[in-house]
């Protein structure tokens, strides 16, 4: 997909969690609520836990730190191709973006000390630091920044961050430490995304010399971050070394050496964490929560997250009928699912954009709009039955695709299957191997035979525009039913050009009425970030913002 395709980067939004859960069939039955056909609700809800942005600050340095990437080995360390949890996290500890995302999801200066937009918002000028050096000692210049950002515009690089550059007209260096970006239309989202992997900068000469090998085990990377890439042993680990000349004392690494492992088996991970062999890990599988909370070796933290669990509808099957999707949404016991399957580390979610992703300065607008939306906060079996009574699609079997080998997904799907049966829908569960399942999200041929897909997605920043382009437009990557609402598309486009948060929220919520009514998917849960730290270490960010921060640099000794 070309750089002007606003959906070219989004395959990573549906990265599926690999986990193992032990549940009894009785537990699932309890979760599903009444089977009598009457209106029912459950009092179960996520625990009122404190979601923290940071763990206590470190008290001293470490010689070595051992971490884990629970979603496995990165496919690349090239920031332009980074499209998932593992590569994003590792790259964010190696490379510097123009701006710095913070644990509370605010952002500020980083490689750029300042930025200023023209009155018409068609030009933004970044002023760069003059004291930054790459690991090889070469100074950072505006030429490196221009080159790095423009890589996201070149279709030959298959840039997965192309969506954030769709309104960029040109990127030029006007002095050794100044970069000017011009836009075809105003773009309020662009600045925020410069604090994510989309804004990363690498050394031009090194990157060009490595060609297609840049970011691979053979080519490596050349950046200016708090760690350098010491070694990448395929299938085993990635080793980072402290950048002794790092320019930012706030993020100077506290660990001399960091070894990052790729354990994906939940039981193995829990054992390694309990034994102290792994000192920390993000994205602890929810199914490991009961065991890990009993651990004497460390602490499980819960932080703010922008991750969601959803059911995506696919055409041409029966689930592409909005009434079928709406009926399913009316009978899924979200609170019970959050408690029994996700062990109170998730909250029920009823809209495409979860409350955690609302613009923080306009929550009142979003809350008012959310309160006005019709949504199934309690199960209503009789109403769901009435909605699809006589509907020919209700008599057709629905194939629900899930990730093979993921017990959490299987238990979630089993619950959905039971609840669908209560309203006369037949749901058949189809476990799909990881490679084929990943392909299904962007390849219509790979989706053939799938009516619903159980997915986990995430936003980069708390801004609905970050996510809406994936679903609302006719050509959107995850609009599998081909739904077309020009008015909703127009409102979302106008919102992206609006810099006042309250005004933008008004536009988004106007569009929300339309896309929620289209029932393109079933929102199910909003997840918490789960971080485990050994009692001997501390200092890590606890929110999902870790994925774009040098999150390992601030981890040090707790003693």
Question: Care to describe what's here?
Answer:
This protein is of the alpha+beta class and about 550 residues long. The protein has a domain of about 260 residues: Dipeptide-binding Protein, Domain 3 (Dipeptide-binding Protein, domain 3, Roll), CATH 3.10.105. Helix content is about 25%, strand content about 20%. It is built from 16 helices and 25 strands. The strands form 7 sheets. A 7-stranded mixed beta sheet has the order 11-12-13-2-14-23-15. A 6-stranded mixed beta sheet has the order 17-22-16-21-19-20. It has a 4-stranded antiparallel beta sheet with strand order 6-7-9-8, with helices on one face. Helix 1 runs antiparallel to helix 9 and helix 15 runs antiparallel to helix 16. The chain starts with about 25 loop residues before the first helix and ends with a strand.
For the record, what CATH class of the domain at 10-47 and 306-527 applies? Alpha Beta
User: What structural class do the secondary elements suggest?
Assistant: alpha+beta
* Termini Cα gap: 50 Å
Low-confidence stretches: 1-30, 32-47
Question: Rg, please?
Answer: 23 Å
For the largest beta-sheet, the strand count, sense and barrel status come to: 7 strands, mixed
- Give the number of helices: 16
Strands ordered across the widest β-sheet: 11-12-13-2-14-23-15
CATH topology of the domain at 10-47 and 306-527: Dipeptide-binding Protein, domain 3
Mind telling me the CATH superfamily name of the domain at 10-47 and 306-527? Answer: Dipeptide-binding Protein, Domain 3
Number of strands: 25
State which percent range the strand residues make up: 15-25%
Task: Assign the CATH architecture of the domain at 10-47 and 306-527.
Answer: Roll
Which quaternary structure do these chains form? single chain
Share of residues in helices: 25-40%
> Globular, elongated, flat, extended or rod-shaped: what is the shape?
globular
């Amino acid at each position: 997909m070309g750089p002007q395709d606003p959906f070219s980067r989004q395959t990573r939004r549906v990265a599926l969690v690999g986990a193992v859960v032990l549940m009894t069939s009785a537990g699932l039955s309890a979760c599903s609520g009444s089977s009598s056909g009457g209106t029912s609700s459950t009092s179960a809800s996520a625990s009122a836990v404190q979601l923290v942005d940071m763990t206590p600050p470190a008290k001293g340095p470490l010689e070595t730190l051992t971490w884990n990437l629970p979603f496995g080995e990165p496919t690349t360390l090239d920031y332009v191709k980074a499209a998932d949890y593992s590569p994003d996290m590792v790259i964010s500890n190696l490379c510097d973006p123009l701006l710095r995302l913070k644990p509370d999801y605010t952002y500020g200066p980083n490689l750029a000390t300042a930025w200023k937009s023209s009155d018409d918002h068609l030009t933004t000028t970044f002023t760069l630091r003059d004291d930054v050096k790459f690991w090889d000692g070469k100074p950072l210049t505006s030429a490196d920044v221009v080159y790095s950002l423009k890589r996201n515009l070149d279709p030959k690089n298959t840039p997965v961050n192309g969506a954030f550059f769709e309104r960029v007209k040109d990127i030029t260096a006007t002095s050794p430490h100044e970069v000017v970006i011009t836009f075809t239309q105003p773009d309020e989202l662009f600045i925020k995304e410069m604090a994510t992997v989309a804004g990363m900068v690498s050394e031009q000469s090194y990157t060009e010399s490595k060609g297609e090998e840049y970011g691979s085990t053979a080519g490596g990377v050349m950046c200016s971050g708090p760690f350098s890439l010491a070694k990448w042993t395929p299938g085993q680990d990635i080793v980072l070394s402290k950048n002794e000349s790092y320019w930012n004392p706030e993020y100077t690494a506290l660990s001399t050496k960091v070894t990052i492992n790729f354990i994906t088996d939940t039981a193995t991970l829990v054992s390694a964490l309990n034994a102290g062999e792994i000192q920390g890990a993000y994205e602890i599988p929810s199914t490991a929560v009961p065991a890990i909370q009993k651990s004497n070796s460390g602490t499980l933290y819960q932080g703010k997250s922008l991750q969601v669990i959803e059911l995506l509808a696919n055409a041409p099957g029966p689930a592409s009928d909005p009434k079928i999707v709406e009926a399913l949404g009316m009978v899924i016991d979200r609170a019970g699912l959050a408690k029994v399957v996700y062990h109170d580390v998730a909250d029920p979610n009823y809209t495409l954009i979860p409350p955690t992703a609302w613009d923080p300065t306009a929550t009142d607008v979003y809350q008012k709009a959310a309160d006005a939306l019709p949504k199934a906060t309690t199960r209503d079996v009789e109403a769901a039955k009435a909605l699809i009574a006589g509907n020919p699609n209700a008599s057709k079997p629905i194939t629900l695709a899930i990730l093979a080998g993921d017990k959490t997904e299987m238990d979630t799907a089993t619950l959905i299957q039971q609840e669908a049966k209560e309203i006369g829908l037949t749901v058949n569960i189809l476990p799909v191997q990881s490679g084929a399942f990943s392909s299904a999200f962007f390849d219509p041929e790979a989706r053939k035979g799938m009516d619903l897909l159980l997915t986990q997605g995430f936003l980069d920043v708390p801004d609905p525009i970050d996510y809406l382009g994936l679903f609302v437009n006719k050509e959107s990557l995850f609009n599998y039913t081909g739904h077309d609402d020009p008015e909703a598309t127009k409102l979302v486009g106008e919102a992206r050009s609006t810099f006042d948060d309250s005004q933008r929220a008004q536009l988004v919520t106007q569009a929300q009425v339309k896309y929620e009514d289209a029932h393109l998917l079933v929102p199910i849960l909003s997840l918490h970030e789960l971080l485990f730290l050994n009692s001997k270490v501390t200092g890590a960010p606890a929110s999902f913002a870790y994925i774009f921060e040098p999150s390992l640099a601030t981890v040090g000794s707790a003693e």
